[in-house]
Amino acid sequence: MKNPETGETPHTASDVTSHVGYRLKRAHAALRGAMDRALRDHDLTVPQYACLEVLALRPGLSNAELARAIFVTRQSVNVVLRGLQDAGLVTRPDAVEHGRARPIHLTDEGLRRLRAVQSRVYALEARMIRDIPARRLRALLEDLDRMADALEE
User: What CATH number has the domain spanning 43-152?
Assistant: First the structure.
């Protein structure tokens, strides 16, 4: 595959299935499918689980901050939060004294549900990386960060 603007190939891959982007998408799709299956038993979706994880670490985030943290739009996070609120897993005040941002917090039930499913999700990640030698894992994580940084410029 050649870049239409430069005529150059991004690397020496013989076909698209050998490109970094394709491999990243394949890994993402496999992880997403495995997470969907693990979370189904706990009546959670992957975006809902991501919200619970982030809110456990950073309680009081606004909708916009939470959307950025879980890589979705503000509109999408509103839909996710509605479902979490209806299930009694998060709370947000109806109004705030200053500004417009309404801080979001986990409820006790939200924290309980998160703790109930965390071990399954963490086991998936352990399974995903088990064949990567520890000495290479740090480099892989750094390379993934470099790739993301290069595209965010």
Answer: 1.10.10.10
